[in-house]
Amino acid sequence: MQLVDSHCHINFEPLSQDLEGLLHRARANHVDYLLCVAVNLEDYPQIEKLAAAHRNIFSSVGVHPNYTDCHDPDAGEITALADNPDVVAIGETGLDYYRNEGDLEWQRNRFRNHIEAAKAAEKPLIIHTRSAARDTMDILEDSGAADAGGVMHCFSEDWETARRALDIGFFISFSGIVTFRNAESLREVAKKVPRDQILVETDSPYLAPVPLRGKTNEPSYVRYTAECLADLRGEKQERFAQATTDNFFRLFTHAER
Fold it and tell me: Who's near 61: CB < 8 A, 6+ residues apart?
């Protein structure tokens, strides 16, 4: 069995303090590849260094919609940074109306810049959306994001949002949230996602899955999310794990297997 943690933040503390142990535990749980996702450009060099040192760690470049006290790059700067061969995606980017108030046009402009960079770099988008699903999908559709492709990461929205994303060729990635007791509606969505458009992730160090909920999450725990989804969908665990791994490399075409 082989798994990919398609979205993690192993440069964050406390994970960064035990990187070798973390990678050992990942391998012991058949998690052979990790995508370490950027949230700002100030910390991006940490991720760049990790990806350069480990062939099984890939990186992205971008600025999260919640980050306000940081450099806000234009599309050209993001595109230039994405020229690094270890960078396989643009993001995470998107919209988050839950933690921000007032006029959020700056957030939408940042999102559009990332979409333009993804199209120019020919690398897929990693999308974060919270309390902003309709605007997120409207911008993706209107900006031609289908040309770049991408993934709706840590998906927790309804089927209508999932369907719109799937219709433009995007993938849906599920985190440990799908294992939570109060996530019945999300599990119903997970049953419907086509087998060739589904991914698994930890979003570590956050959102540890059941039975480890409340602990610091790490890439090795993605197996619990994969096992939950396989059982939910009535699929054999090894077959589901292989499908999500194959899906990862079909989406992130710059990632070397």
Answer: 38, 41, 44, 78, 81, 82, 84, 87, 90
